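Lab notebook: predicted structure, single chain.

Context: the supervisor wants predicted structures on file for every construct in the current expression panel, including those that have not yet been purified. This is the next one on the list. No modifications to the sequence; it matches the entry in the shared construct table.
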Amino acid sequence: MKQLLTIFLCISLLGCNETKQSVIKTDDELSSNIKMLFEKYENNDFEVSQYYIDDVISRFNNTEITGFENLTAGFKAHHDMLYNNIELKDVYVHTNYFASGEIWSNAWLTWTGTGKTTGKEYSNRAHFDYKWENGKIVVVQGYFDEAIEKMEIAAYTEAQNK
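Prediction complete. Output recorded below exactly as produced.
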């Protein structure tokens, strides 16, 4: 009888409108995809175009880059020109499924590597956001201290100009 009364009240008074709520998940496919993309970055493997739209917008601190090829060129430069022994440690990823329909994955990690030119060992905390639409990444945003990268690029450039 209580169930019938509850159903009746829901139908007559509340209209049974289902309210969408935002949800955060850590064990979903999109979070797993981000973790896999990090592993591929560590391994200098950028055969991952199926996860991005061609004209993905990437924002790293105050720099904006457009296009998958430009994004991966920067990642490749880390391995090819700037650093050895790149590792991502303490990786945490979750994905926000917002009530509005937007989907964003967020990641926190510690990036480590050794400068190819300077030989210095670096460690840098970072945060990344990935906006998903139709199962693909349309926006990448990264926030980290740029001092390490600027120092290694300057040393590399100076060495190339000698």
